[in-house]
Amino acid sequence: MTDVGIIGGTGYTGVELLRILAGHPGVRLKLITSRGEAGTAVADFFPSLRGFIDLEFSEPASAGLIDCDVVFSATPNGVAMEYARELLDAGVRLIDIAADFRIKDRQVWEHWYGMEHQCPELLAESVYGLPELNRAHIRTARLVANPGCYPTAVILGLAPLLEARCVDTGTLIADAKSGVSGAGRSAKIGNLLAEAGDSLKAYAVPGHRHTPEIQQALTEVMGEDVAVTFVPHLTPMIRGIHATIYARAVGLSAEKLQGIFEKRYHAEPFVDVMPPGRHPDTRSVRGSNVCRIAVHQPGGGDQLIVLSVIDNLVKGAAGQAVQNMNIMLGLDETMGLQMPPLLP
Amino acid sequence: MTDVGIIGGTGYTGVELLRILAGHPGVRLKLITSRGEAGTAVADFFPSLRGFIDLEFSEPASAGLIDCDVVFSATPNGVAMEYARELLDAGVRLIDIAADFRIKDRQVWEHWYGMEHQCPELLAESVYGLPELNRAHIRTARLVANPGCYPTAVILGLAPLLEARCVDTGTLIADAKSGVSGAGRSAKIGNLLAEAGDSLKAYAVPGHRHTPEIQQALTEVMGEDVAVTFVPHLTPMIRGIHATIYARAVGLSAEKLQGIFEKRYHAEPFVDVMPPGRHPDTRSVRGSNVCRIAVHQPGGGDQLIVLSVIDNLVKGAAGQAVQNMNIMLGLDETMGLQMPPLLP
Amino acid sequence: MTDVGIIGGTGYTGVELLRILAGHPGVRLKLITSRGEAGTAVADFFPSLRGFIDLEFSEPASAGLIDCDVVFSATPNGVAMEYARELLDAGVRLIDIAADFRIKDRQVWEHWYGMEHQCPELLAESVYGLPELNRAHIRTARLVANPGCYPTAVILGLAPLLEARCVDTGTLIADAKSGVSGAGRSAKIGNLLAEAGDSLKAYAVPGHRHTPEIQQALTEVMGEDVAVTFVPHLTPMIRGIHATIYARAVGLSAEKLQGIFEKRYHAEPFVDVMPPGRHPDTRSVRGSNVCRIAVHQPGGGDQLIVLSVIDNLVKGAAGQAVQNMNIMLGLDETMGLQMPPLLP
Amino acid sequence: MTDVGIIGGTGYTGVELLRILAGHPGVRLKLITSRGEAGTAVADFFPSLRGFIDLEFSEPASAGLIDCDVVFSATPNGVAMEYARELLDAGVRLIDIAADFRIKDRQVWEHWYGMEHQCPELLAESVYGLPELNRAHIRTARLVANPGCYPTAVILGLAPLLEARCVDTGTLIADAKSGVSGAGRSAKIGNLLAEAGDSLKAYAVPGHRHTPEIQQALTEVMGEDVAVTFVPHLTPMIRGIHATIYARAVGLSAEKLQGIFEKRYHAEPFVDVMPPGRHPDTRSVRGSNVCRIAVHQPGGGDQLIVLSVIDNLVKGAAGQAVQNMNIMLGLDETMGLQMPPLLP
User: Fold this and answer.
1) What CATH number is given for A2-125 in this structure?
2) Class of A149-312 per CATH?
3) Can B291 be counted among the known catalytic residues?
């Protein structure tokens, strides 16, 4: 049996990994680390996991990470880069769910993340873990950079249009709305229910870390520079991202537009293109690894609108990480990930 | 393979049954009926089930219900009693998730439900489907009355105390708080987000249909009349019931109290007694079939407080129905029901 | 004292009018009609108004509407046009908070609202009641068409840019997010807390009634045809609209952009332009008549982003209606409208 | 004009005081202190107050507190007791909205609040600021201890029954449900929207600080020891407390019960007793200083149920503080407090 470890399991990505791995028949969860909670039973910390997870949190140093086959890093940004070299040298395959290895250009990374990169020599090797774009490279990767939540929704919504070279790449806009779990399980006043509840706001309009990540992926898709105006919003829900994507195309029919998406994602187990005229809601993917997409062309004009929804903690984090693990291990890509969304 | 049918699948109990049965390895979902949506693909009606359920809703009359081995009735009150006789005569086993067969006394039922009972001759035969009390009878039942959501939380919280004969049965109080999905998927102004959101109220304080159901079950446990003051509240959440139960006991130690519950539910797969001092939150059972309980005795006094939480749509409806089905079919009782709660 | 009447007071616009008028020192609320609730005390129907409103709902036919000085129509679309002629002939001034008189082109109106207009002869006379654009005409109007909620937020966010003729009018996008009270106090499944809670979706992407309203107003501002791509979203909050507006400009500095808005709205009592770099949240205007705006130009590029928030029931409906009434009556424009937002 | 100061204005009680005082015609808000935000404009910190409050936060030491006529302390527990002596000596009247002066018994206070009291000599003098019980003493008080939010709802719901000496004081239960703003504007993980949203839990069942406060007040009402079982719950809403109160009485008719409450609160401007059979919802008092009460006696039995709702930030904190101030200053008790609730 394949042994799996998790670094930093007390956040939302951690508890979501635990939920998914608890029902995964192909791997064995061997350990989960937490500096702050070492010695605490996981099921005491997350009572929802009583009866499902029997482990205690352990100290990272002594946990036995290097004896795992695969390690997920579910820590804040800047932690995985401290472990990566040692784990890879020990033959462990690493999936970083934070952002340490997402940006290829070290200077861009350091600008947006405000710290010095600890192992820039791995940036070239790391594979951006969006299976729908990079499945072949993920298969053999030692180090996978799991995509950000917003980038997952936006890139999956835009890639077919760019691959089809049918839109103006100068006017791409992604207006994205996220639930508050995207901000993580950390004590910030702005994310209190009394602050973020029953209200809505844009944030980081002058610039957000996910913009360079989106642009890097789309530039690779397109083979030329792609710029996207990206505006994130904080909304009063727990899970879910809804990206409303605006692109302009000339002479595209509604049928052709629909066809581009259906054809592109026909064989993808976790991207669902809805029939024409539909509007996906975020709850339709709650708790599942699906990215659900609908495309519109109001009045048959030049303006295309792509609606792309994911659960930020599943396809936007832990679920996609398990999907990547499945690919890396040669397992069925959907193993452990075929749970229907929770609705209502 | 066992064939299963669902009558009336467009409500919340219906979609929750579909979610659970989609992953149940022991039965085959053969049909689902809806008068209003006959001919509509289930996955068009509930996009969350795209890729999971391939059926269309069918007309009840022609659906082939009598060819099923087990039928769930997920309709409003008053419908199952019209089908029950015909189905049982055809050898179909019926699990009614509505209230038609919960109350043994026909007059009491007709008083609270405001209609004439269509097949009172089945009331005596029907088994109240709370496995923790009635497992043996459920096993052989032809007709199971699946408990109400509030009664499930309240009865599981009170039964151990009554069985242990350690509380005053004259002062039992159950103050229960429910999410709005308990009111069903029907268009009522009072359940609009703009009405029920960010607000809380008690309702039906003069009397609620679930009071006689609770009292009947507890009276059977106790072997003598038990009266419970039951006050339900509507709270601004989607799923979840939290019952705060007050009982008085003289001379009970905290250890003994805890022991009564732990011993009573030790072997139960779906009742979790927390360690002393804990407070279960409803999200800790969201999407799961677990009833999670904690017991308190503030200051070591006579007042006992039991906190009992369930997901009203799972242990309070569809999940418990599948648990009953598993028992009736001789399957592992937990089959298809071992999904961890969705948190956050 | 000026006598005021309300037609159709059982919806959200009605109760919000009542809340505002209860504290308005310049007018007397004389009557409020409701076909369905005639004879019911307003304070029985809306317990929040106990102690504030002493009226009963009355039958529209016998209520004495023609004896009022000003009448608000807070009904669904299609009702005000049945009363308008009679009221105006009696010398009553009418403020329609629904959409009957917003669109000047009868055919456009009939296309979007799906009914025949009952008094098209008044369309030319009616004044679009956005004080920031039409104050002078409102002052003398007999018939004011109170703007829609989305149009209020979008037009106020775009008008300064169009007046300054500094943006490309071919690429205007308004991505708008609304709380569910915008859908009115009517029993629709899609607006239940269990449906719309903890979820988010776009709707009416192929076309929404507010698009022609927005375009008509902006075309008048600009003196030439203006087209806007408008995408509304339903969000899990009660009140509030957040419009995120995208426009392109060449050679505009951040300082100039900020200056355009500050100068334009300097004297406006109900439009607040925030300092550079801010992000308004909808709760910052909850319960108040303010439209709060911030402008951004990420990276100093061509893409301008305007963030515009209102309370859809106040500046987007009842508050703006009272503002219009104040103007029409020659009262201080802010009378009865100077309540601070409710936060948190 | 009377000069008013606020100590510690960056929390929810602070911003609510500011909202109320902004529209209060009888006093002048002279200063507001904050150690952490000294020098920041209040309207920058709370954008909802742009245009309403022109002050900056100032350092407590140099703010000029002793030149005020009345000072509100809106700080965490343990701060007001450091200032109280100095302010009183300077002739300033102090209203502490925290808990420093609520409990008369120093040892009880120190037990529950976990710190040494800094000026126990003022405990005897301080007046518990519940106007419905202590109006005469408040009028002349130098030091008012503003009641806690839960105690306000519970005491107002129980006092008439105790005064009428018609209930068994041995079995009083208050099951209370609060919105999260009651926990204050401080960064705690448990109050994040992603934690407290869409969920409900009891907390502090073994013992809560408000229990001795409730018992002290009711004991004073009764003239003998009164014990109350008090269980608070955290609910997913922003504002509002709903107390469901259980008491037992023998031989009381429903009419007499209703009469006891109506008579008791007939002249109270901020307590509203609903007609028989009603259920108040918390939103019916949102943003207002009203405590709304309904009483029930299910089946005419011995069990009485009182439903008592308040807005925890208004009648449960800032509004009641202003009500106390009005009484102390000889102003109309309702001055600045007559705003209708915000609904929906």
Assistant:
1) 3.40.50.720
2) alpha beta
3) no
